[in-house]
Automatic annotation (TrEMBL):
This is DDB1- and CUL4-associated factor 13. PROSITE patterns: WD_REPEATS_1, WD_REPEATS_2. One of its GO terms (biological process) is maturation of SSU-rRNA from tricistronic rRNA transcript (SSU-rRNA, 5.8S rRNA, LSU-rRNA). Keywords: Repeat, WD repeat. SUPFAM superfamilies: WD40 repeat-like. SMART domains: WD40. One of its GO terms (cellular component) is small-subunit processome. It comes from Dermatophagoides farinae. WD repeats lie at residues 60-102, 292-333, 335-376. The lineage of its organism: Eukaryota, Metazoa, Ecdysozoa, Arthropoda, Chelicerata.
Amino acid sequence: MPKVKVISRSADNYLRETKNDIHKLPRNYDPALHPFAVNREYQRALNSIKFSLNHSSDHWTGHSDSVQKLTKHPNKLSVLFSAACNGEVKIWNLTNCHCMRTIKAHNSIVRNVCIPQHGKYFFSVDDSQTIKQWNLSWLNNDEQVFEMDSERQCQLMQMADTPINTILTKNPVYFIDNHRQKPYLITCGQGVELWEENRTQPLKSWSWGIDTVNHIRFNPIENDIAVASSTDRSLILYDIRKSQPARKVVMAMRSNAICWNPMEAFIFTVANEDYDLHTFDMRKLKFPLQVHKDHISAVISLDYSPTGREFVSAGYDKTIRIFGSRERRSREVYHTKRMQRLTDVAWSLDARYILSSSDEMDIRIWKANASEKLGFVKRLVSLAIFVIKIN
C-alpha cells in the first residue's frame, strides 16, 4: 500500500466570521522577502504630510442645509457671512471658527448677501421676490454689547433678528450687489434694476432680450459700471448713468459667475459652463485676454485675491483651483474625499486664506499657499523664507 499524505487546514485561517469582515490573505513576514518595506513606509509618510498641507485646515459645521453663498465683511477681516438654502444667514468669526449669530432671514433659498462699505447693515434676497435689510450695529459695537445689562442685550439681539426694511419686487431676484460709494443696489432677474436703499421702487430698469439675468457685479473701482451674465449666454455691460445697456457679447456657453479685478479697473473674469474661465477687458469685449483651463467640469464660482494677481475658482468637478491673473494653467488644486459639489468660494481680505462652501453643509478654510507655515515663526526662519521668495 502506498502512503497517502492528506493536506488539511483549519477553516478559521481563511474564512470570515461575518460578511462585513475583510478577506484574510496569507502573507510571509520574512524581512528578506520585503527589502523595500522601510522605503515604502517613508514614502507613504511623506505623501501623507504633503497631502495634509493641501487639505483644508479647518471646516465648520452648523448649517442644516446646503450653503449657497459666502460674503466677506468689507471692514472686518475676521467676519464672514454664509447663506443657506433653508433661508438662514449665519455670521461667523474666522478667528475662533465661532458662529456669532444665526438669522432666519427667508423661507426659501437665500440667493445672495451684500454689505455696504460702512458695514452698518446688510441686504439679503431670496426666491420669494423680497429684499430685506438687516441691522449690524451689534457687530460694530461688539465690545460695548457685552458690557450692557442682560435686558439691553436681549433688546439689541431682537433688533438683529428683525429686518429694518423689506422691499417687495415685481419679479424674482436672482442676485444683488451694492454700489461702493452711493446708497444704491443693483438686482437681476427678468431684467436689471437699480434701487436706492430707502426706496421701495426701482430708480431704473434695463432689459436686453427676454432671457433671465442670473448674475451681476458692480465694478469696485469704476463704481458706476456693472457687468451681468444672462441665460442666453451673453455678457452685458451697464452704466447706471445711462438709460440703455452699454455693450453686449455672446459666448459659446452660459456664464455662472463674474468677478472684477480689484486692482485693474477694466478687467473682469467670468466662470463659464465650458469648463474654462475667461478674462476680458471691458474696452474690447470681442476677444478675451486669456482663457484659463484645467477644470474638467463647469466652473461654478470665482473670487479675486485682494492683490489682483491671482484668483480662485470652484468647479462642478469638486475641486478648487488657483490661477494667476494672466496664467493659462492653474498653479494649485485643492480637493478632499468628503467635499461634494462646490457652491461658492472666497478669498480672505488678508490674501492668506481661501474659503469654500459645498453641498454637504460645510464651510472650509484653505491656505492660499499650501507650503506656508502657520503660527509663530522664528526670526531666522522668517528671514530664510523671505530670501527664498526673493530668489
